[in-house]
């Protein structure tokens, strides 16, 4: 009976030792997997941080390009307004000169008419 009990205890001890070894192996496997996952996560985080910095740099460059384009557009609009004002001023000068020419032309026609009338009167008078 003692031998049977000893054998049963020995079997139970072997079984517990096997379970302990299995648990220990499983723990080591989980630790390795956890370490590998941790390494992957750190690498992924590092890659994402690098991408974030690159994206931020690109965004900053694009913002600068947009600012430059806006400045160019504003300068172009300003130049166009200035050119339009100059053109309007020149058109106004031309209009005033044309009016002056029209008045002078009218005066000339009146003078010609008057000269013809005087000449006719003079010829009539000489007869």
UniProtKB/TrEMBL annotation:
Question: Where do the segments described as Disordered lie?
Answer: 78-98
Origin species:
Cirrhinus mrigala
Put simply, this protein is called Uncharacterized protein
Q: Which domain of life is it from?
A: Eukaryota
